[in-house]
Amino acid sequence: GQLVAWNIATKEKRVLAGEFEGKRFNAPNDLVIDAAGGIYFTDPMFRAPQPLPQGVQGVYYRGADGKVSRVVKDAPAPNGVLLSRDEKTLYVSNSDDKRRIWMRYDVAADGTVRNGRVFFDATADSEGGLPDGMKVDVRGNIWATGPSAVFVFSPDGIHLGTIKPPEDPANCGWGDDGRSLYITAETGLYRLRTTVQG
Hints:
By secondary structure, this protein is mainly β. The chain has strands at residues 3-6, 13-17, 31-33, 39-43, 58-62, 68-72, 78-83, 89-95, 100-107, 113-121, 134-136, 142-146, 149-153, 159-163, 169-175, 180-185, 189-193. The strands form five sheets. A four-stranded antiparallel sheet has the order 3-4-5-6, with no helix packed on it. A four-stranded antiparallel sheet has the order 7-8-9-10, with no helix packed on it. Strands 11-12-13-14 form a four-stranded antiparallel sheet, with no helix packed on it. A hairpin with a 4-residue loop joins strand 8 and strand 9. It starts with a strand and ends in a 5-residue tail after the last strand. The mean pLDDT is 95.
């Protein structure tokens, strides 16, 4: 129910955001840090107390000054979160069985977001898995784990390709020389060499 920072060397825990409007968060899940040191994080219902402490599933922004604001309050099940390379767009994946969608929001200078719209809809895909973690490459394309695959999208939401690992993926990240995409799944970790750099 908190956003925390851990000092790897000393094992010291520092609470960055423990509550919002006097109540604990539901179950903070994923985050992305902007160049100013602000942090966007999703707060879905996964393993959260019931009724939900916050009453809604949302996305929050903790500014570098420590102030926390709810920037999205109507997400069906916010999970993965990602900033575009220029930090002008925030992407949020929604892990809801009824609406398997990725949303896109315009980011304002103060960290708030507006103009939310569907970036890509995979609801019709009846395979297993749900939208989850995302990463961006040097061209600004989004690599997003989703129903039984990693989807690759252009910044405008054009579906460029699909990678099907042996298991339903949950998250992905760049490693090695930036041309290895690591994919976490139900029981395994997979690596794929790519022609584009992350």
